[in-house]
Design brief:
Oligomer: single chain
Structural class: alpha/beta
Radius of gyration: 18 Å
Number of domains: 1
Number of strands: 8
Helix content: 25-40%
Distance between the termini: 42 Å
CATH architecture: 3-Layer(aba) Sandwich
Mean pLDDT: 90
Largest sheet: 8 strands, mixed
CATH class: Alpha Beta
Strand content: 5-15%
Order of helices and strands: HEHEHEHEHEHEHHEEH
């Protein structure tokens, strides 16, 4: 337990900062249920996959390469189906969608877990800044194209972060997704995490009754997402963070596993979560007009790159 964790209590549901993914799913039988988890090969995605399978579920695990997905699921047998899906490449996303169609896969839950953090300025061939593309636009394309494959009581969980509060002054730069104007690596990351929350707000409004969506802050965790940080910051996350404030990976995974699988989370649609309980986002994260505008902008990006949106 970190120093900070010693002073954290539990929420109304009996879980909190120090709860682990196994603890929040104890007693659940997920036999017969199927989930999709992006970023399954490391960190929170790996633990999410492990715990869902532990509780009896079948998981389609997506990673940037098929080899990474296959390696992460090697111990799970038929309970795991590897999937290549590079969220920074629309063609890879479309290929993954075609593969899922071939499997005739339908899902009880989708966990949009994969992400990158605080990169130097990079714009992809499709004209989007890499953090926004990987963290939001790629998942937007993937998730909206899979809504027809979501069960009537299915759930969508999107990983956000408390870092959504450290975005640009105007919140979202909807007309500047390539971040051409005064790029700042941390604020660009914060903008992409704000986009995750706003995506969930508007998705929740559009989903039919019975389905639900959740935006998740997992906590401060030393995972592979820190690989792009300057060396001193990466060292601090890895060496100092766990002692002072960081959660373990099982603790960091608890909120997303609870949201996607626990019966008690079913009725809390469109909320931002932290420490396995609903939490307060920034004012931008509560702006439903901004959420609707982001959806329109994201749909336009999808149309430009041949994905098509069904939501």
């Amino acid at each position: 337990m970190s120093f900070f964790g010693m002073f954290k209590g539990k929420g109304a549901n009996g879980f909190g900062y120090n709860s682990t993914a196994e603890e929040v799913t104890e007693g659940l039988d997920l036999s017969g249920k199927t989930y999709l988890v992006t970023g399954c090969n490391s960190g929170l995605g790996f633990e999410t996959t492990r715990v869902l399978i532990l509780r009896g579920a079948r998981v389609f695990g997506a990673a940037r390469t098929l080899a990474k997905a296959e390696f992460s699921g090697a111990l799970y047998g038929d309970a795991f189906v590897p999937l290549e899906c590079n969220l920074a490449a629309p063609s890879s996303i479309r290929s993954a969608l075609a593969t899922l169609a071939q499997h005739n896969a339908h899902f009880d839950g989708i966990v949009a877990n994969a992400g990158i953090m605080s990169l130097p300025y990079r714009v992809t061939a499709c004209g989007a800044e890499l953090q926004m593309l990987t963290n939001h636009l790629g998942h937007f394309l993937l998730v909206t194209e899979l809504l027809d494959r979501l069960h009537p009581e299915g759930r969508v969980v999107v990983l956000s972060s408390v870092a959504h509060k450290d975005t640009y002054r105007e919140g979202l730069r909807l007309r500047d997704l390539d971040a051409a104007h005064k790029y700042h690596r941390w604020q660009a990351y914060g903008q992409s995490k704000l986009a995750n929350i706003l995506f969930v707000r508007e998705l929740a409004r559009r989903l039919p009754k019975g389905q639900s969506a959740y935006a998740i802050h997992p906590g401060v965790i030393a995972t592979g997402i820190t690989r792009y940080l300057p060396r001193v910051l990466s060292w601090a996350f890895e060496k100092v963070g766990p002692t002072l404030a960081a959660k373990s990976i099982p603790q960091g995974t608890a909120t997303q596993v609870y949201a996607v699988a626990h019966p008690d989370a079913a009725e809390i649609n469109g909320a931002y979560w932290a420490d396995v309980n609903p939490a307060q986002s920034s004012r931008f994260g509560q702006d439903l007009e901004l959420a609707a505008a982001l959806w329109v902008r994201s749909e336009a990006w999808v149309r430009d790159h041949g994905g098509g949106s069904k939501a």
